[in-house]
Input
Amino acid sequence: MLLNIYGSGAVVSGYVKDAESGEALMFTTVYVTGSSVGTTTNQYGFYSLSVDSALIKNDSIHLSISYVGYQTVQRSVPAGRHVELNFDLKQATNELKELVVVASQSKLEEELKSTEMSMVRLPVKQIKSLPAIGGETDIVKVVQLLPGVAKGSEGGTGMFVRGGDADQNLVLLDESIVYNIGHLFGFFSVFNPDALKDLTMIKGAFPSNYGGRLSSILDIRMKEGHQNKFQGTGGIGLLSSRLTLEGPISKKASFLVSGRRTYIDQVFKLVELFVPYYFYDINAKVNYIVSQNDRIYYSMYYGNDVLKFDEGDVVEEEASDTSSGNDLGLDFGFTLGNLTNTIRWNHIYNAKMFSNISLISTNFNYNIRGQIFNNQLLIRSNIFDLGIKADYDYYYKADNHIKFGGMFTHHTFKPNIISTQGDITEFLESSEGEKLFTQEMAVYGQSDKEFTDKIKVNTGLRISGSVVEGKVYTGLEPRLASRYLIDKYNSVKLSYSRMKQYMHRVSSSTVALPTDLWYPVTRTIKPQSSSQIAAGYNHIFPKWQISCSLEAYYKWMNNLIEYREGANLILNNRFENELLQGSGDAYGLEFFVKKEEGNFTGWISYTLAWATRDFDDLNNGERFWAKYDRRHTVSTVATLKLSKRWTFSAVWVYSTGSRFTAQIGQYVMPNATYTGFDIIPIYTARNAVQMSPSHRLDLNISLRPKKDRKFTGEWNFGCYNFYNRATPYRIDIVPIENGLGYRYQQPGLFGFIPSIAYNFKF
Output
């Protein structure tokens, strides 16, 4: 890292990290004191800032570096010398309120002046005290509290972003795709909060380095491991426990290992119930500083859901049972898992050029097995990705940041591998299925340039493509984001994004099941595409450290996937015959207010949205509402530090119900042989009826220990759904008591659920 002199100007570059742990601090603000000239660190904590000669005073450059929750650092750099300038920021304390305010103002102003919109960044440590089922923070559930993000079924990890479908979200963990983000049929996410550092949710104004999905990007980054000392953290909850170990390997290397396991199977044994299910996951990361200009990272995630049931287990539970045991030979179970690996190389060419090269592999698979008497059934499915990705940052000038790069991924799909033995082979033969190979690639470039103090524009272009079954699909994906600064407290923003998606998920249920399959595009199933425009107004209140935004968006989508009426998707190798493609529209208004500093923090979000679909072969060719078209969604998140040891947090959410196709009557007609009668149901238009709205209040209170102990603990007492108002999650048709008809019933899910958890650190 050098300080290069260009004429009478200078370039300052380096890394910003946490002074205690050595963790890189992403998106830290670095600016020339007393000016509007500044930049932010990238995902690896690197920054580069070009400084004009007019800002050099007394042969020195005066810099300020700030990050939420940390003390602001001010440093003078001697001009005319080649200097390596790294910054170590210390966390702010309650006694440093003035410094905290300075840091907050800087970040708020940077957000106001940036071209970024439809984007929310959440450091994981800021949300770990929020209430959750079982007492453990679930980051996907937190993302569902953001504007524009509609949940699927109650308690699930499904995300329906700005009118899109659940498979239109690209979820990345250290740049590796995570295909299945839910444990326990989607009620828990696969992400262990103790292993994570930061998450970024993008719903529009997509930077050109992201692609492959239509609706959103959820970019999650793992911790790098404490570089200065060995330490451990963990937690014991009602449903799961976790342990994280991290520390230095040498002066140049550090590690992190984090594991988590649920003991649902063991908890239910205490009440004499047999639930043969559990899940576990492991995160690991190693980073090594090769030189001043080179760093290498390796990160891994492995997780599994396991259900194992055989008749012998039931017999053991029933001590009074005198039978001989496994009479039926009953044996059933499944495994559902992800494995990701990422190797990254950071290289600094000079003070202005930074690169990251990544080798990425992803393996997603499920196995379902069953046995009764001499009949055996095994169903498997697998996706294996192997790819390479290169990203380059060129800090051309203080007012122009250029980013470019490319990616290539080889996908191997093995859907519906079936193996049978016994009498069942007469009805279901063994089949290896058709192995599918596809290649997906893209190149991109973008420039984030400030033309005047008022106007800043980010222009980008992504050229993507996919090769499948000898057919080549390509697409141009232009991106544009602009900002007009009204004054130092107000700005307006406008963006346009076009996205392409070259795979989709075939699901026969709204709940995440092991039978859900990912398929690529084919010669007949075309890539999905979307275009989105968004306009926003941003305002900051520096005195109260509050920012607010109001965004309107309109998105139109083509080649969306739906299923034919009565489609059979399970064990179907010719699924293409069951699919239909059509179009869709989504539009709405989002309001977001947030406060990230001080004793009282949180946010309020409100979404007013519409989402429709249009398929020639569905609903008589007439436009219909999307299943998760929710008109109103409100989320209120609040955290209050009552004292140094006590913290109170609350979450209140309201949402209109999802939609369904209702049966409104029946009629009788003779059957084809005139030997009897068939009862024919009468339905409304597709998704014409909305379920009841839902709302709930979640609470949590944390008791922290004194900080002068080497081993410290924290108690969390909370509850989910405080006032016990169960959320409707399905529709049942039940007969009326007098027998004169039928009515709909909406069974609720998840009433009042108390929780207690103990977190520790040593």
Observations:
- Residues 119-221 form a domain with the Ferric Hydroxamate Uptake Protein; Chain A, domain 1 fold (CATH 2.170.130.10).
- The chain has four helices and 50 strands.
